[in-house]
Amino acid sequence: MPVYRAPVRDHVFVINELIQFEKYAEALGYEDGDADTIAAVFEEAGRLADEVFFPINQSGDEEGCKLDNHVVTVPTGFAEAYKTYCEGGWAGLTADPNYGGQGMPQVLGVMVEEMFTAANHSLFLYMHLTHSAAHAMHGWASQELKDTYLEKLVSGEWTGTMNLTEPHAGTDLGMIRTKAEPNGDGTYSIEGTKIFITAGEHEMAENIVHLVLAKLPGAPEGTKGISLFVVPKFLPTEAGEPGERNQVFCQSIEHKMGIKGSATCVLNYDGAKGWLIGSENNGLRAMFTMMNSARLAVGLEGSGKAEIAYQNGVAYATDRIQGRAATGPVNSNKPADPIIVHADVRRMLMTQRAFSEGARALAGEIALNLDITFKSQDAEAKQVADDFVQLMTPVAKAFFTDEGFNAANATVQIFGGHGYIGEHGVEQYVRDCRISQLYEGTNGIQSMDLAGRKLSINGGRAVKTYLATADALLALHGEDAEMADFVKPMLPALESLKQATQWIMDNRAANPQNTGAAAVDYCRLFGIVALGLQWVKMARVCIDTLAAGTDEADFYQNKLVVARYYMARSLAEHSGLLERIETGADPIMALAAEAF
Ligand SMILES: Cc1cc2nc3c(=O)[nH]c(=O)nc-3n(C[C@H](O)[C@H](O)[C@H](O)COP(=O)(O)OP(=O)(O)OC[C@H]3O[C@@H](n4cnc5c(N)ncnc54)[C@H](O)[C@@H]3O)c2cc1C
Q1: Does ligand 1 have an atom closer than 6 angstroms to the CB of 438?
Q2: Is it the case that residue 153 has pLDDT exceeding 80?
Q3: How far is the CA of 386 from the centre of ligand 1 (A)?
Q4: What is the atom index within ligand 1 of the atom nearest the CA of 194?
Q5: Cα–chain-centroid distance for residue 263?
Q6: Which of 186, 241, 287, 482 has its CA 20 to 30 A from that of 153?
């Protein structure tokens, strides 16, 4: 039987002890940002994840979704779990109180997402797309549209979707063909086919609110000619309730590798009625609001998967007996020792844990900066925070999901052949996690966003600030002998990141392929260094807490052991990545296309 217990203590550590959100809460206008409230919310979220989401994760995978006459049936228990989630107010946790939300900080919203998606990736997709749709409408829709839709999305009574992809247009959205004809009454008639639409059809909610990219007649070519529309499954009545059925139907659902409990739909828009969100031809900007929040949520799918993979790896490694410890039997009354005695098994568990705890800390810092971006009154602080979020979003999306997949894969390895068969439930994590590397923009595209656009905006202001802040952090702790194990290995790693950044900036003009050639390695290098910096900060907190005296000494001492592992092993990749980045595009592009 697979296991999962939300790591509530570690969430509390990140937000209350590492980030110390309480210090920011008042200035940001969060009345409920005190340490006790935060711990209580994590406790409740953990209970929901453990007791409601997780028990239907494996069965949801086995059962999958079914389509019959345009109606999608989700796995047993999903509708009840969705109802429990909505009744608990989780759908509107961070949403605007003007629309029925609880107005809680992002540090809560983001962190609980990790628990929910770890416990049940498929189920949480219905919720996270709703949250993203509400976020985009809040930012861009007219007051009238907000009044019609936001309360329903915030309560979870209606769910949301994002409709970008078409059969011939995935990454290159400039090629979409879905059309929007004005009806002359302020509404539009939407015509076209969207594919791969997550949560595109189901009966868990009274209505589904599709946010759809389409082109107006005579719109400019490419991405400059895309507009965003809201197209409900049922047209809202005057009273704001679901009314007449709109002309959008699910034609089929995909049979896919993983996330089988999530309905991935082909949607036909056949003259469906829609309303414009934002201004004409400005749809991609509005959609990016949705995608940025969705990208961080996808990143958490990766770190959440690493956590659940780790927990199952530990459970199996302490139970399964095979072979003897290299140092002599530890279980002399049994025919073999538990496999956790073997260094190779430990290596996998330690890598998973060092990543998962490091990623949680980085997610916490991103969430804090989201709170500052949304709520700070200080223009400069807002700009620095926004730069940080923009820079880190592709790192969180791509690096977290790559490592989440590696962690899930490592658990199959820990289980040996028993991991490959369905019985133990861990091969599901590999299948489920694979999509996180693909949707919301593939990890290759995320990496190019980082190495291309994000390094260039405002003359590289975001990355320069990031590197200077990292220098300052290492200088601050550099004189402290107790911090030497953490600061010393970070110095060359940070140097590699600086050198790689400079190399990309210096070499992109010489060969237009250089950025793409370096991008994936650069994003990984960025992620490895970013987690290293988190481990430096975590080490500081642990050393100080132990010095001050604590009755949880094991928790802090163990964290220091994991921090040392990260510095000794996970960080070591930096020099190889730099070396690869600096080879540029030539070795990659040298073979003629026809020679493949
Ligand atoms: C289960 C599932 C759920 C999904 N949910 C949604 C959803 O809810 N809404 C939605 O709109 N879409 C959704 N998608 C679609 C998803 O976002 C796309 O599949 C993804 O963005 C990639 O597009 P594509 O599959 O067309 O690949 P392509 O764009 O054809 O890319 C193929 C390969 O080429 C690479 N590539 C493409 N262009 C470039 C370039 N310029 N430079 C370098 N490399 C490039 C890509 O990185 C990739 O490796 C979902 C997909 C799946 C499978």
Answers
A1: yes
A2: yes
A3: 26
A4: 11
A5: 19
A6: 186
Tell whether ligand 1 has an atom less than 6 A from the beta carbon of residue 171: yes
pLDDT tens track for 539-587:
999 999 999 999 999 999 999 999 999 999 999 999 999 999 999 999 9
Distance CA 206, CA 241 (A): 9
Ranges of each domain in the chain: 286-449, 450-595
> Is 513 touching ligand 1 by the criterion CB < 6 Å?
no
Q: Is the dihedral of CA 453, 456, 460, 461 positive or negative?
A: negative
pTM of the model: 0.97
Point out which residues pair with 229 in neighbouring strands.
Answer: 212, 276
Give CA 337 to chain center in angstroms. Answer: 38
The structural architecture, per CATH, of the domain 286-449 is: Up-down Bundle (1.20)
- The SS3 of residue 336 is coil
pLDDT at site 462: 97
pLDDT for the residue 32: 82
Q: How far apart are CA 373 and CA 384, in angstroms?
A: 8
Cα gap 99→256, rounded to integer Å = 36
Distance CA 200, CA 508 (A): 40
Pocket mutation for ligand 1, best pick of 127, 172, 196 (most atoms within 8 Å of C-beta) = 196
**CA separation (Å) from 173 to 150, 212, 283, 290, 453?**
27, 12, 11, 15, 17
Residue 104 has phi, psi (to 5 degrees) of -80, 160
The catalytic residue among 87, 166, 440, 579 is 440
The 10 Å Cβ neighbour count of residue 591 is: 9
